[in-house]
Structure formats: C-alpha cells, structure tokens
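#struct-pred
JK: can someone run the complex with arginine? inputs below
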Amino acid sequence: MKLWGGVFTQNIDKIADEFNSSLSFDKRLYKHDILGSIAHAKMLGKQNIISIDESQKIVDGLNSILKDIEDLKLEIKDAEDIHSFVEQELTKRIGEAGKKLHTARSRNDQVALDIRMYLKDSIDNTAAKLKSLCNTMLDLAVKYNDTIMAGFTHMQKAQPITLGHYFNAYVSMFLRDIERLLDAKKRIDVMPLGSGALAGTTYPIDREYVAKLLGFSQTSVNSLDSVSDRDFLVEYVSCISLIAIHMSKIAEEWIYWACDEFGYITLDDKYSTGSSIMPQKKNPDMLELIRGKTAKVTGNLSSAVSLLKALPLSYNKDMQEDKPILFDTENTINACLDVLEGVVKTAKFNTDKMYKSATGGYSAATDIADYLAKKGVPFRDAHKLTGEIVLYCIQNKIGLEELKLSQFQQFSDIFQNDILDAVKLENVVKNRKSLGGTSPESVLNSIEILKEKLSKL
Ligand code: ARG
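RT: done, structure tokens with the ligand placed:
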C-alpha cells in the first residue's frame, strides 16, 4: 500500500517502484521513526486535533509495533520506506485511528526528524567508543611514560621521544574529535517536525511540546529550511572523516612499526592474519583495513557535499540518498574504532628495540647546539658547529654519545664535562620538561590534563 495514489490512474512501474524505495536502508530508522510518531500522536491528542482516545490507540499501536520489531516478531518489508511501513502496520493493527497519525505532518519533516534523532544517539555512541580508546591510550601513556624511542620528522630520525608522549599525541587528536562531534550535535539538536511539506501547517500544533517530549533543546524556526537542511550531515561526515584520518595515521605508523626492520611492536595473533602462500607471514590486515576504510569515509564526505550542491529549496528526492552516506560512515567508523582499540590493547611493545633505534642517529644534536647556545653562542653558530661535530661522527662512524670530552673540545673550548651528560639519551628526553614536552615528567603532567578534559566531555 502506498501513502499516496488518489490522483493516479495507473500503478507505478515495477522497476520505478524498486528504484524509488528506500526501505532496504532506511529501515534502520524504525525506532526513531516510531518514537517521533508517538510524540506527534500525543501532541495531536493534547491539542484536540484528534481525540484523546485516538491518540492513545495510536501510541499503544506504535509501542506494540516497536516491541514486535525488537523481538524479531515483525519483519520490516513491503513498503516504500520506513515511514510508510510504520503507518501501514499501524492501520493494520488499530484500524481507522491509524489513518489519522499523519495529520499535520509530511514525510519531509518526518524524515528530517528521524535522521536528527538517529544521529544524536549515533554521535553519543561513537563518542563513547572514542573515550574508551582515549582511556586505553592514557593507561599506556602512564605505563610507558619514560620509554624512549626515536621520534621522526620527514620520516627521518629527529629527536628521541617517549612512548607515553606518542600516546598523548593521539589522545589529544581524539579528544578534539569528541569535542567536534559534540559541537556538531548542538546543531543537530533542533526539532524540525511541524514544518510540514515546506510551509508549515494549518493545524494548531504545539511544536515545543513535541521537542520537549523528544528531548530536543531547540525547535526550528523556518519550515523551508527545516525540510531542506542537511548541513548537519556534511558536518557529521566531516567530523567522522577527521577521526578516520587520525586513525589512518596510527594505522600507517604501526604497520611499519610491526615490520622486522622497525620491530617496535608485535601485533597480537588475535588481530593479525596469515598469508595463504607464505607460512611465515603475519600481516597487519586490521591496520591496513583501517587505513583503507578511511578512503570510504572521506569519499562519503565528498558524496555528501556533492549531493547538496545546488539543490533548490526545499525537499528534493535526491535527499533520500543522504542515508546510505550516513549509515556507511557510521558503520565504518564504529568498526574501525572497535578494531583499533583491540589492536592497541593487545599489542606488545618491544621497548628494547625502541631504545636501540633512538641511539646512534645523532638525535642528541639539538641538545649540543642548545648546550652551546645556553653558554652564549648564538644559536645559528651553535647549529653550524654541531653540524660539524655530527659530520665528524659520521666520518669516524661513532655516535654523539660516544664522543669524549677531548673530542668535543677540538670543536670548541666552551665544552665542559657536563656535555657528556647532556648527550645521554635519558637526559635528552628528561630535559624536555616544557609544558607538553616529551620528558616523563611532562608526559605525566599532560596525562592529568588530558584525563581532566576527557572527564568533562
Ligand atoms: N524516503 C524519503 C527520504 O528518505 C522520505 C521522504 C519522502 N518525501 C517525499 N516528498 N517523497 O527522503
């Protein structure tokens, strides 16, 4: 049964009917559609637009449909979309009163309501996953606050850092991601029902009441915009794209951390896969998939903006295509977050290899330049002089930390015994005590700040 047809003299073509249908994907909105309809029916009753008895019958009928769907007793099928399905089923169950549910609303404002309700819950769910990942990483940051490893710029060994510092970097990113999602949620938290098809309604509806029943903090104020607005979809997919991008970075890093040449980590068997031909292989497929699925999410962002570009006000059927974008984005990010947390929780950190790779790469060079600069040598000159010391080490195949005081003094008599301490890896790290720096002390301090921020979200 269709929700329309009075004016038609022929049935829709079978192929067109299938093409038009969104039920295969929008059935996912069933709960929010039913809850939205319950609030609408209560409002219609309260406003005497339908009788209290009719309103109650509708509410009971809708609750029974919801229960049967959740108990898997009712299959969602044979309708154009989820809105048609629910109304059809309601009328089947309660008769004439069911036909009154759609009074003073259109599917245009109904679908806008459903997506907003759905996304509010979805954001909370994804934010909770992000928080859990942050907590896992913060635990690791505490555990490895003084574990030294090589730090890179341009993928070249730069300065040693601590593993705890590394984890705090990702927690900082994911914290921003949570904040961004919750900020986007503010603009989603606007109740559009009552906008009708595009121009509002002639019935004495109470929109604020519906907003209150459904837990919205605002009610929209322009019916044309309310049924057209999918800005929040772009915002949502954009927020999710950044999360995916952040995850793709750690995925990329850990893929090479897991290879023999790096050996920083060993991935757990539970999160690795094998090769069908090479018996010795253990592959980081989970991480590669996280990296790969990021392309899907950023592709969805491109689809979302393209979908909306130049769409005239108000509702256009193009907008039905918003849902596959939304659901795929949601599925992908949630799966990636679950998998990444598993990978992170079970990975083994080979701290000896990390330490070893931080040595011998002249990563204490900045500290030598800083040593000279602190004793009055202009930093640019100190930089040049240190470069010459590094060249000497390269030519003589020794590390900076192996240089004797006499060798340092060949370059400048400013060097005193304390230079030997300054180039020790532990001190190179320990001395970076600035706020947000890599020293164990700073890392522990940052962990407290990050925990505090996280607890407020
Ligand atoms: N299935 C439609 C969608 O998802 C519902 C709105 C239909 N509105 C209409 N005017 N045909 O967008």
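RT: quick notes.
The longest strand covers residues 156-162.
Residues 22 and 320 are 7 Å apart (CA to CA).
JK: thanks, will look after standup
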